[in-house]
Fold:
Amino acid sequence: MNRDEKKELVAAMHAEFTESSVCIVAHYQGLTVHQMETLRGKVRTSGAKFRVTKNRLTKLALAGTDFEDLADLFTGPTAIATSADPVAAAKACAEFAKTNDKLVILGGSMQGRVLDADGVQALAKMPSLDELRAKLVGLLTTPAQRVASVTQAPAGQLARVLKAYADSQSEAA
Structure:
């Protein structure tokens, strides 16, 4: 990789860090290519990004972002997961780490606040933005459904009474 390519990579990573609200740092030593592809797929479907990084270049890209305090974690075979959703990257990495002990979560940062491995695990247990939105929509639509069912109930009862009356009149005739 020549100097210009390195500058472009640092600029791209810096832009990714400025757009993200969370960054998770992990060691991946011992993972096979298939396991890495599985991990990338899980992270991608959750709306996050996962990449193996060069430590020196990543430290340069971290400068001037909310995540610059993570520089000390970049030693050894390091990978990062980033996302705009504060929970997505942590949740995807933590779920994969449960089934594969070779992915070791070192820590992370959320909006300038440094998290240790336990903090990332706690973040992963929180509901994602999509889950919170679904709950909110459910809460908002429940009263409307109840109002609709209450207003429809008397009309349904009236229709059943009229049908029964009509049936009894046709039998009498």
Summary: The mean pLDDT is 86. The chain has two domains: 3-126, 128-173. Residues 128-173 form one domain.
